[in-house]
Amino acid sequence: MQAWFCDTLDGPDALSWKDAPTPEPGKGEVRVAIKAASLNFPDLLIVQGKYQMKPPMPFVPGAEFAGVVEAVGEGVKHLAVGTHVAGFAGTGGFGTHTLAPAFALMPLPPAFSFEDAAAFLCTYGTTYHALMDRAALKAGETVLVLGAAGGVGTAAIQIAKAAGAKVIAAASTDEKCALCTTLGADATINYTTQNLREALKAITEGKGPDVVYDPVGGELTEQTFRSIAWRGRHLVVGFANGAIPNLPLNLALLKGASVMGVFWGEFAKREPQNNAACLMQLAAWYMEGKIKPVIEHTLPMSALKQAFDLMGSRQVRGKVVLTNG
């Protein structure tokens, strides 16, 4: 096998493409021949030593991938050689093969492409858990999506619309806002040229959004929380802005509002049956054409460093996917 190895925590530029022995699966493990893998923000953090999970070095980064089962270890019952799978294992995706725990793999329906599958589990799993499980989103409610043109943002627009909600998409450029409109957003806000709070007041007629989906953090968090509706739910998904905000808790009191943490990876570990039910619903929506990953760039696996540069520029709409052969 070949893979991108992280030998130091000096970021993407320090990664090196190397040959390594093709591993054999142990108990409860599966070896996957990787067909496609996608980039997520934690992939950047983990090679910088800034992510909460710190695997021993050397390791192969790449949390999310799709491919074909090549070998199964002892005790694996639900997967067989030849099964097409999507996986979210934390590491291992940026190579030709990987070992993954069987519980971290989802069998794919026949019409599910490897490219879409590689951009599906983390983004859509996180977002469904956030909107439907944590926030208990109801049809007719209004959802504000921050960073709406990114990977999780585009998933949030699609899932909220599939659930019957009204969607306000907030992004940093007019081009990104236009993309959000094509995905079904009912209204858009360019928060670099518009006053976010004034725009929200106008769009919601003073009520504010019922749910805020926030993968951005920074100064936008307090602005949106000040605009949230009575009994609103603010979903803390991530901090793509880089800054973890300090939120005055008197705002939660005044609005009767909730701040809800979203950690899909931990949810999947602690509540595997609930997570499986969420993924089944997502797969059904995909097959019905209600949701589909937005993939702006598809590059060969050899172009991983270029892919990191694209993601770091924060100009990518949707996801970047890498493919083997």
TrEMBL record:
Q: Which domain of life is it from?
A: Bacteria
Q: Which InterPro entries match?
A: ADH-like_C, ADH-like_N, ER, GroES-like_sf, NAD(P)-bd_dom_sf, Quin_OxRdtase/zeta-crystal_CS, Zn-ADH-like_protein
Cross-referenced SUPFAM superfamilies, in alphabetical order? GroES-like (SSF50129), NAD(P)-binding Rossmann-fold domains (SSF51735)
Q: Which positions fall inside the Enoyl reductase (ER) domain?
A: 11-322
Q: Spell out the CDD domains in the cross-references.
A: QOR1
Q: Which GO terms describe its molecular function?
A: oxidoreductase activity; zinc ion binding
Protein name (database record): NADPH2:quinone reductase
Organism for this UniProt entry: Aquabacterium commune
